[in-house]
TrEMBL record:
Organism phylogeny: Archaea, Methanobacteriati, Methanobacteriota, Stenosarchaea group, Halobacteria
Pfam families according to UniProt: DUF8005 (PF26027)
Species annotation: Halogeometricum borinquense
Keyword terms: Membrane, Transmembrane, Transmembrane helix
Transmembrane residue ranges: 6-29
Region (Disordered): 48-67
UniProt-recorded name of the protein: Uncharacterized protein
The keyword Transmembrane helix appears for this protein: yes
Length: 67
């Protein structure tokens, strides 16, 4: 039979478990809703800048060849 102190210990562990699980769920949701979209946006921006730079270099090369 579990004593009163044992019940308090189990209750405390249950409360701590819920806070621990809440922290993990919050972290995963932050990753999903904040960090991953910002990372994708950053990568898209870098890719777009690279494409613009390549187009500009091609345009300048064509201009040099024309003269």
């Amino acid at each position: 039979m579990v004593t009163e102190l044992g019940w308090m210990y189990l209750g405390g562990m249950l409360v701590l478990f819920f806070f621990w699980a809440y922290g993990i769920v919050s972290f995963v949701l932050d990753l999903k809703n904040t960090i991953i979209p910002k990372t994708r946006q950053y990568i898209r921006g870098r890719r777009r800048l690279k494409e613009q730079k390549e187009k500009e270099e091609e345009r300048e090369e064509r201009e040099r060849q024309l003269y």
